[in-house]
Amino acid sequence: MDQLLINPGPPLLSILIFLPLAGALFLLLVNNENFARYWTLAVTGIAALLSLPILTGFDRGSAQFQFVEKHAWIETLNINYVVGVDGISLLLLLMTTFIMPFCVLASWTYIKTRVQSFMICLLIMESAMVGVFVALDFVLFYILWEAMLIPMYLLIGIWGGPRKIYASIKFFLYTLAGSVLLLVGIIWLYITNNYSFFIPDMMWQHYSVTAQVLLFLAFFLAFAIKVPMFPFHTWLPAAHVEAPTAGSVILASILLKMGTYGFLRFALPMTPEATVMMMPYVLGLSIAGIIYGGFTALAQSDMKKLIAYSSVGHMGFVTLGIFVLNQQGIEGAILQMINHGVTTGALFLCVGMIYERTHSRELLSATGVGQYMPVFVTFLGFFSLSSFGFPGTNSFVGEFMILAGTFEYSIPLALAAIPGAVLAAAYMLRMLQKVVWGGTDNPDQSWLTDLNVREIVTLTPFLIFVFWIGLSPQHFLDLMQTSVTNLLDNFTAYSSQYMAAADLIVR
Amino acid sequence: MLDFIIILPLLVVGAGAIALMLLASMENLSEGSTALVSIGIFAFAFAVQLMVSVSGNVAPYETAFSGMLTASTFTKVAGLIILACGLFSCMIAQTYFTQNKFSSPEFYSLMMFAASGMLLLTMAAELITLFISLEIMSLAIYVLVGYDRSRIKRSEAVLKYLMLGAFAGAFFTMGAALIYGGAGSTRFALISKYLATNSFLESPVLVAGTLLVIVAFLFKVAAFPFHAWVVDVYDGAPLPVTGFMATGVKTAIFAVFANFIVLDNGMKGVWVDYLFYVAVFTMFAGNLIAIGQNNLKRMLAASGIVHSGYLIIALVAVGTENFTGGVIIFYLAAYAAATLGVFTALAYLGGTDERRDSFDDFKGLAKVRPYTAAAITIFMLSMAGIPPTAGFMGKFYIITDAIRADQMLLAVLGIVSSILSMWYYLRLVIMMYFKEPEESFEVSGVSLAPVGTMILAVSVFAIGFYPVFL
Amino acid sequence: MSAELVLSSVIFFGLAVIIPVIMLLTAVFGPRSGGVAKNDAYESGIKHVVGMADQKFSVKFYLLAILFLIFDIEAVFMYPWAVSLRELGMFGFLEMVVFILLLLTGLIYILKKGVLNWR
Q1: Residue C102: its chain B contacts at CB < 8 A?
Q2: Do A144 and B381 touch (CB under 8 A)?
Q3: pLDDT reading at B117 higher than 90
Q4: Which residues 6+ apart lie within 8 Å of A380 measured at CB?
Q5: pLDDT tens digits for chain C (119 residues)?
Q6: Transmembrane stretches, by residue range (chain B) (predicted)?
Q7: Closest-CA residue to B388 (of B329, B467, B443)
Q8: Residue A86, helix vs strand vs coil
Q9: Given a contact as 3+ CB pairs under 8 Å, which chains touch A?
Q10: Quick check: B22 contacting C, CB < 8 Å?
Q11: Backbone φ, ψ for residue B71 (5° rounding)
Q12: Which pLDDT score, from 0 to 100, does residue A3 have?
């Protein structure tokens, strides 16, 4: 328990988990669409505000878990309700609470049927997502991890596009199947670790190599599907394309991060030896994902699909950063998770705004809108630049750090990843060019109206973060530095203690 | 007096059944009030059982009724579940009979007779008592299954169930006789004592006897390869009876099955290897059957096979020392809550003569009746084992137990099967939520079942989060 | 071969031969009376058992027979109880009272339902 730091004051994390849930329960009784919208906006907004004290009260100098709450839950099996944040989860937590109000705003007019149900789903999602990032008990984690699927499934399935049923089932079964072995792994860890589900207890234990490899594979399957890494990505384009805007944003910005978060939180500390053994393969898959995502995105004519495939590429960068196992790589990866959340989330919002007007996501039907929607294309331009890592924007910092870390690890690997960055520029500029200017045969877009105040309010904060992270990343890096250093220190200590093949370890 | 305290709930239900039967013969009791009276009796018995459970009297083997009955937390909670099942089944029946006209007050009386048989079954610690209680339960259920003689489907169901049930009874009798021949007693305590000093495998009579007894149990819970009857019977039986069979009978049989299997470590050791395969095949056969169904009741019947498979995993993993059976009981409670939940919803949605019974009939329910649809979704997810429902916690405990008992493969196969089962549970959710409604799902008559649905929907979560059964 | 074995073989074979022979002889020499009623198949009060399997028939006789069986078995059950009543004592007496009361409620139910009215 020495890894826990119990802050005095109100139980902020629990409030963040249960406030949206309570909001959802209240909404069950309401039968007024407009009220549902305002109510959800208020609840998510309050949650966002309440997450600020966590940021200010967070002790940057400590790698311990902070704001910890611990209550006994199921005593016969030693399952506890334990939550806490550290440098790795803090930013993800904040991103979650901050993106949710904008998801509500983005659905303001987009969702026309069954508004209450939609808002209930959003609120339950928020509870579960916040919970996943702060859970320190593996059962709690697993329950929330799985519970998240249902509202997402409904979001896609009820309010989705034409092939929604296919997409929702694929999403559901794929991710569910991924976590099959995770549960077995969790229970094995529980029994091996003296019947404890407490996550920090399971870290840095010396399991046999076979067990570690099996555990790693179980983790890998669950997390790689969630990320999604290259061969497991096929659910993502389907789900993204069919989901409503808010669903796409949540998927891209938050859900995908859970996979990479899982790698950092579980795979690395619990199976260090297996991580080192499997590292080359994972890195290979990351590179494959980067290149594959880039090329596929280049060929898309559906804007949502394009962004979905670009996500595959970007998340490839994140896993690359994590598995090179050095300070810069991991910090870059965490930062890139946030960047991807901000940028891709914003891009999906942009596509959603176009879709609300033209009712099509086809690139060809949205060509040449720059003349009639100047404000919109300005936003789109910035976000596109951010997406391919233009210097000055957030992704540049993230990708730069990841590539720097990769160079440190292996030059050929880094060189292999570079084309990904080039491809990103290619497909993003292609989209931008078509949307803003198009060609000579543009459809008549003169009836389009530019963004209204609500939409501008929705997009502006994303733009602020694009530049804030891009120009002054140190604010964000400070938050995670201690935790990442601690993670790597532990890793090195573990390696020198247990690993025979010393030349394999982190350089 | 302790003896009588532990059978107090049984006496309440039995006396209630007889009283109701006599009242029914006087023919001055309306149908609606019979339902209310029976719900009241079940509730009272439930309260009595609860008091008995809280008072914490435990009568291990050898004591109660000179060794004929046993009482432990396990049997008491099993009794609680059975009584709750009876209560909700009566609610279902009350609503069901506002739309289907073949009821008479004896229906409820028979439900209570069945329940008293089940209660006795959970406590049985002696093979003859076991047989008698098995038959009290089965005979009542046979009659209930065939209650509506007007339709050929019902007659088919009752004939199948009666014939095969009689076979199972015969198997059991033969097995009990062989065990008596081998161990020299029909009492669990003495059999256990005999086995402690003599090796189980050295006595072929005992091996054959236990095999036959286990076959009878497996038949009653519809485990592979004795599962073929279940789909037709559940489909043919009236809705309240199906609900009661699926939950109450299963609870009772698994309670006594667990009591029986933990008698001796050597005996369990021999059968565990076979039960392993039975569990695996039961799960997958059930899944395969369920995937092909278009009718909701048939799907639930087939999924009941799968759940039996999980419970057999729990039996495989259970330890003979310090047996508490908490995992089994928890799973049974979670399963009963979800299943009865669906049946309470079907009771008022089904319409006249169970008009709506296929997946397609529930298209767009979420738009017309959002609360019911949400409740059904919760039940489906609980059965599928998706967190944070009770069904997930039940599976979680079972899998934890299995891994603890070094049955890693069984644990993995169990989860794989639960993923497969998503397919047919989700189908209903898809129909309800993703399709447009084609009708208005009018419900005639004021009824109790919606109340039951809501109570059970809440309890699905409550059981999961506050596992008092463990 | 021992004497017993020889003897038993003889008896066995004797039986195997004698019984069929006697049966044959009675078939040939025995007195016989025939008639429609005698040749009719008869089963538990139902006259025409041959015919369609799903035809309707009266169940009155069945009900009576089953009720008779129940009370018959009750009587059978009471013999050993009566013999050992002294050892069983008060407890045994009460047990039987409960048993008979249960049957009595059944009888009341039957009476009220009019099962015993031969209509």
Answers
A1: 18
A2: no
A3: yes
A4: A347, A350, A432, A435, A436
A5: 677 788 888 888 888 888 889 989 988 888 877 777 777 666 655 666 666 666 666 677 778 888 888 888 888 988 999 998 888 888 889 989 999 998 899 888 888 888 777 76
A6: 6-23, 35-54, 74-95, 130-147, 159-183, 203-229, 241-262, 274-292, 299-320, 326-349, 370-388, 408-426, 447-469
A7: B467
A8: coil
A9: B
A10: yes
A11: -140, 130
A12: 63
The angle, 0 to 180 degrees and rounded to 10, between the axes of the packed helices B265-291 and B250-261 is 150
Total count of residues recorded for chain B: 470
Residue of A366, A363, A319, A361 lying closest to A340 (CA atoms): A319
Average pLDDT value over all residues in chain A = 87
Interface mutation vs chain A, best among B322, B369, B415, B427, most A CBs within 10 Å? B415
Which chain B residues touch A176 with a CB distance below 8 Å? 386, 419, 422
**ipTM over 0.95 threshold:** no
Contact B22 C113 (CB under 8 A): no
Check residue A502 and give its pLDDT: 45
Arithmetic mean of pLDDT, B376-397: 89
Indicate yes or no: CB of A146 within 8 angstroms of CB of B387.
yes
- Which segments within B37-81 are labelled E, that is strand? none
CATH architecture of C57-119: Up-down Bundle (1.20)
CA nearest to B28 within chain C? C112
Residue C105 forms contact with B (CB below 8 Å) = yes
C to B contact (≥3 Cβ pairs closer than 8 Å): yes
Chains that touch B (3 or more CB pairs under 8 A): A, C
CB atoms A180 and B387 under 8 Å:
no
- C-alpha closest to that of A260 among A196, A317, A185: A317
In tens, the pLDDT along A6-48 reads 777 788 889 999 999 999 999 888 888 889 999 999 999 999 9
Pairing of strands A79-85, A66-74: antiparallel
- Rounded to whole angstroms, the Cα distance separating A455 from B429 reads 33
Tokens representing C88? Answer: 């069983």
Looking at the complex, does the CB of residue C84 fall below 8 Å from at least one CB of chain B? no
Whether pLDDT at A2 is above 70: no
How much is the pLDDT for B81? 92
Q: Does B386 touch chain A (CB under 8 A)?
A: yes
3-state SS assignment for residue A452: coil
Which chain C residues are within 8 Å of B21, Cβ to Cβ?
Answer: 105, 109
User: CB B22 to CB C102 under 8 A?
Assistant: no
- Judged by 3 or more CB pairs under 8 A, whether A touches B is yes
Local confidence band at A1 (pLDDT 50, 70, 90 cut-offs): very low
Give the count of beta carbons closer than 10 Å to the beta carbon of residue A205: 16
Is the pLDDT confidence value at B453 over 70? yes
The domain limits of chain A are 271-492
Out of A142, A147, A154, closest to residue B433 by CB? A154
pTM, two decimals, is 0.86
For residue B4, give both structure tokens.
């009588």
Q: Would you call B26 and C112 a contact, using CB atoms and an 8 Å cutoff?
A: yes
Cross-chain Cβ contact B25/C105 below 8 Å:
no
Nearest-angstrom CA–CA distance, C28 and A318: 105
B422–A contact, CB cutoff 8 A: yes
Rounded distance, CA B357 to CA B377, Å? Answer: 16
Q: Kindly report, residue by residue over B207-261, the tens digit of the pLDDT.
A: 889 999 999 999 999 888 888 899 999 988 888 999 999 999 999 999 999 888 8
- For chain A, the C-alpha Rg in angstroms (whole number) is 22
Q: Measured between CB atoms, does B25 come within 8 Å of chain C?
A: yes
For A203, B5, B311, the CA distances from B248, given in Å and listed in that order, are 44, 22, 14
Q: In this structure, what token pair is assigned to residue B126?
A: 């002696």
Residue of C nearest to B106 (CA): C109
